[in-house]
């Protein structure tokens, strides 16, 4: 086993190969909005970092998400809830802030 880091995560396990991946880009009206959604989605760390990695970055007005997993089933289990939370955070931003850029297509509920 690898050494435990100060945050309690096994760095060797977190760095294990994760050949299956999902990437999404969502454009918001401003970089501030993209950062707000990123911060809302970054609150909880992955429960199983040995099998799933999630990275969120803001590039201008875009929120870029990459999720990688050791197998397809785990990837699907990680992506589904993430997309639900992304949709919720985007809808809250729409309700209380500026609308998202027109090139996004969030499915209707």
Automatic annotation (TrEMBL):
Keyword tRNA processing: yes
Primary location class: cytoplasm
Domain of life per record: Eukaryota
Subcellular localization, as worded in the UniProt entry: Cytoplasm; Nucleus
One GO-annotated biological process of the protein: tRNA threonylcarbamoyladenosine metabolic process
Keywords: Cytoplasm, Nucleus, tRNA processing
UniProt-listed Gene3D superfamilies: Alpha-D-phosphohexomutase, C-terminal domain
Entry's Gene Ontology cellular component terms: cytoplasm; EKC/KEOPS complex; nucleus
NCBIfam families, per the entry: PRK14887.1
Family: Belongs to the CTAG/PCC1 family.
Protein name: Transcription factor Pcc1
